[in-house]
Amino acid sequence: MRALIQRVSRAQVDVAGETIGQTGPGLLILICAMQGDTAANADAMASKIAKLRIFKDDAGKMNRSLLDTGGSALVVSQFTLAADTSRGNRPGFSAAAAPDDGERLYLHFAAALRALGPTVGMGQFGADMAVSLVNDGPVTIWLDNQASSL
């Protein structure tokens, strides 16, 4: 799986002008299931993100995790994270999981993250979504658990 995580003060996702998911202080997680991903990849990604120490401690150092802060998360599916731009100017997305697998793993990832403790808001798989956020820091981190072990 691939994820782009952003530490946020707040974020929300709207579909057809209606807010369907949001978070206060915590993380916006853009997530993409890749071909060959399994539930184990989703579980590992959820655990890594929940424990990633990217929130400030009392000394102002990034030393606390989402679990430590009691923050929440907004999880949004984004197949474009699978973009291959190595040939030409039009990205290819063939490395993304098939839609049925992608949706199943997206839902599994969100459930796995929720099971670890954080409140989790969600986007709508396959929908045209408007995502807004206030990036805190800014802190933005790319994770890929196919390329290397988390």
Question: Nutshell version of this structure?
Answer:
With 150 residues, this protein is an alpha/beta fold. It has three helices and eight strands. The longest helix has 17 residues, at 99-115.
Shape: globular
CATH domain topology: D-tyrosyl-trna(Tyr) Deacylase, Chain: A
Main sheet specs? 6 strands, mixed
> What is the CATH-assigned architecture?
3-Layer(bba) Sandwich
End-to-end separation in angstroms reads 11 Å
Number of helices: 3
Q: What is the number of E strands?
A: 8
Mean pLDDT metric: 95
Using the CA coordinates, give the radius of gyration.
15 Å
What's the helical proportion of residues? Answer: 10-25%
Order of helices and strands: EEEHEEHEHEE
Low-confidence parts, pLDDT < 50 over ≥5 residues?
A: none
The secondary structure category is: alpha/beta
